[in-house]
């Protein structure tokens, strides 16, 4: 079972809402660089090819709704 941190789940949820890195950073009060780093980690953890695939796999694994 894939495990994401609370921050990674929050970022995946915002990605599912269609927000870009800058918008996610603004909502979470973190830097764009931090968002990009977390996206890269999520891609690796979920073996995802891109952001859309992150959303699909996160939903499939019931990590986000």
- Give the total of beta strands: 0
The structural class is mainly alpha
* The CATH homologous superfamily: Winged helix-like DNA-binding domain superfamily/Winged helix DNA-binding domain
Mean of residue pLDDT values: 96
- What is the gyration radius calculated from CA atoms? 11 Å
Detail the poorly predicted runs. Answer: none
- Helical content (DSSP H or I, runs of 4+): 55-70%
Tell me the major beta sheet.
none
* Number of helical regions: 4
Percent range for β-strand residues: under 5%
Amino- and carboxy-terminal Cα gap: 17 Å
Give the CATH level 1 class: Mainly Alpha
In CATH, the architecture is: Orthogonal Bundle
Number of domains: 1
H and E order: HHHH
**Rough outline:** globular
Can I get a quick summary?
The protein is an all-alpha fold. The protein has helices at 6-16, 21-28, 32-46, 51-60.
């Amino acid at each position: 079972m894939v495990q994401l941190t609370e921050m990674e789940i929050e970022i995946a949820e915002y990605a599912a809402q269609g927000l870009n890195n800058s918008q996610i950073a603004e909502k979470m009060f973190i830097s764009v660089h931090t968002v990009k780093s977390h996206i890269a980690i999520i891609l690796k953890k979920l073996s995802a090819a891109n952001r859309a695939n992150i959303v699909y796999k996160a939903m499939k694994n019931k990590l986000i709704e």
